[in-house]
Model the fold of this input.
Amino acid sequence: MTTKKRQIKLGAFLMQTGHHIAGWRHPQAQADAGVNFRHYVQLAQKAEAAKFDAVFLADGVAVRSENLAALSRTARSDQFEPLTLLSALAAVTERIGLIATASTSYHEPYNLARKFASLDQISGGRAGWNLVTSATNAEALNFSRTAQFAHADRYRRAQEFHDVVAGLWDSWEDDAFVRDPSQGIYLDTDKLHTLNHKGPHFQVKGPLNVARSPQGRPVVVQAGASEDGRELAARTAEVIFVAHQTFDEAKSFYADIKARAQHHGRNADDVKIMPGIFPVVGRTQEEADAKFEQLQALIDPVVGLSLLAGISGEVDLSAYPVDGPLPELPPTQGPQSRQRLLIDLARRDGLSIRQLYLKIAGARGHQQVVGTPQTIADQLQQWFEEGGADGFNIMGPWFPGGLDDFIELVVPELRRRGLFRTEYEGRTLREHLGLERPQHPAALRRLQSQLPQKIAA
Amino acid sequence: MTTKKRQIKLGAFLMQTGHHIAGWRHPQAQADAGVNFRHYVQLAQKAEAAKFDAVFLADGVAVRSENLAALSRTARSDQFEPLTLLSALAAVTERIGLIATASTSYHEPYNLARKFASLDQISGGRAGWNLVTSATNAEALNFSRTAQFAHADRYRRAQEFHDVVAGLWDSWEDDAFVRDPSQGIYLDTDKLHTLNHKGPHFQVKGPLNVARSPQGRPVVVQAGASEDGRELAARTAEVIFVAHQTFDEAKSFYADIKARAQHHGRNADDVKIMPGIFPVVGRTQEEADAKFEQLQALIDPVVGLSLLAGISGEVDLSAYPVDGPLPELPPTQGPQSRQRLLIDLARRDGLSIRQLYLKIAGARGHQQVVGTPQTIADQLQQWFEEGGADGFNIMGPWFPGGLDDFIELVVPELRRRGLFRTEYEGRTLREHLGLERPQHPAALRRLQSQLPQKIAA
Done:
């Protein structure tokens, strides 16, 4: 058996009109993308034709409506619920993985376990769940709470939520459903495993009313980069989406997560690390710079300032001069890793408030690469080959053109270097990513208990 | 304008292998239907080609696993989650309505409002929500409860849940999203209406992060027939699915609901009543009888007895002689209307326990019609023309054949009588059903407040 060369994994991170905050104003953008199903069909089918591992959808369960002036100038308030959208996309795609974000703070584990198991069945083994804890008060207020859960509480709940979902996915062994009409036996109750979970946050009896799905379990994805987030991810995640500004950060995170995973008894290769990349691609550097400047010039200052609201804790940034430095900020109860990253960025480069929001208007803290297919491929190759990444989540600046550029210009360059597939090797998301299909725990135990007898016989 | 003749509405009630409890054992049944997406695609596309108003999916959030012998012989334990399935079907159909059941006891209103609004967007205005309260302890145990909510509590919660969902669907006026890239204005905040709901069960601020959907609001469907259920339905439902055994029952229910709706300030025609019909169709009566007997003979007695478990309250029916009469039963905390209906049926016809389960093995309390296209059409026509129904929810005994028979034999007969459409009149589920698109309350108020000025001017 020949060892196949390790290749880059690619996710297409779809987001309404695009990842750049002013992307919707681009003359060729699909301004109604948030509720335009045909738009998403086209994007998903293009990503599949390019052999991407997966499409990825972020999510939040609120409209950030405290700043009406910014709200009215931002294209983030109308969007499909991700599982609904991915189920529909499952019916019009054949191979590409389908990763939806869903919150552990505002769902019941039985419902989410069912939905992802159903999506895995419908799509023939292409479902992934991006587990998030939700980090804004606006979301809490839509779910009969007066404020969000504290950071550590969210992660304790998330850990238990994950374990319940994983347990429910193993309610039935793979061969539990025999469906023998002549004998009248539909299922083998010896292969039914009732969860009977009783924990501090959830009591869930089970079993799940969906057969074990094609992937055994849908792929579990996470994005948290705080201490709590890293621990949860190292124990449970199979893919990690993360935001880095520099190669050194990426390398240090990569080494840390792989070590933590091994500490939890997993193989380093059981966790794929895929930083977000916001690419602006030109045939020349000048063309790329011009494309980027075109988008930056479309940012309304009201919108720019609002981008920093999520990281500012209790501080009202609009009270500070926009061309002055970022003030001291108290720790947020929101996503701490993100706050840290942006403060570090501002301090390191001595950025004013305005310069900081211009800096994150596209990539929101992820790596922004503005260049030619060659320079972008160079950077991806370095991160991939020198211990910074197993793949990348591609964040098109605007849609459809921003993704088209990456597919038409960068993907061929990666292929010339042997770094990206020309055809899918398998059919499931696990197969694309090189993740093993988890054996059912009871089937595994049965196999192990039979071992001595077989040797004796 | 000519008044169009009133016609029968038809739903295709899809359920895994079929509605007859032994349907999965039919030699031509699709035994793995519960997790076979292609199977559902074929059924939905056939129903659409036949111009049905909608496909309909029931739901429960548990496996009834207390009786393992019955469980192992029943094809009800693996099924797609309905919203996931209907979203996927939305992508491969064009016109047919898509009605999914979802529980008000085990979801959060913000999540359900989003999912149905998303489905309505994806499908171009074809979504319907069958609001149920869930009525088994098995379900409660999957959601961190030790027992289900009491009957009246469930309905109080359901009423508030409905009002929150409807309010969230009206978060944005129809023309709120202007999406003007040149001015940089994406939405008009004057057309944003924050719900700010504070009730005994839910506190939900809003707004919803989905634009107002093509139907204004997805169609609201209900099935409760208890006093609490009727009141909720009369106030809020636009379609009612119901189980009747006799024309007299149907007529009395129909008159009662239409009167209650009017009492709540609605038009009688704003509520469509569609009883379930379990049809076994033969070209002759003998052929129909033989088809039915073929299915009845496949019922395992263990399974038959288990059918009565849901209605028996705290009484263990297996302790009574199977060929003796039904004992006295205390009121259940489950679906009371269903318990009443089955007890009445047994008493009226003097049925033994075995005769009762054989009687409900197919239709589960719904009208069972075993006959020729003519006799079945006669019955539907009578109910429709004499005040018993606005349409019917067709429950194929097994799939695909049980639905095929109805489509190929009964639908043409209904058309010959002018009772069913030959082509869709519109594009949305509301248009199929003849239900008005609800105006946005704020738009309506604005219109009303402008009226005097217009007259003055």
User: Anything to note?
Assistant: Chain B is about 40% helix and 10% strand.
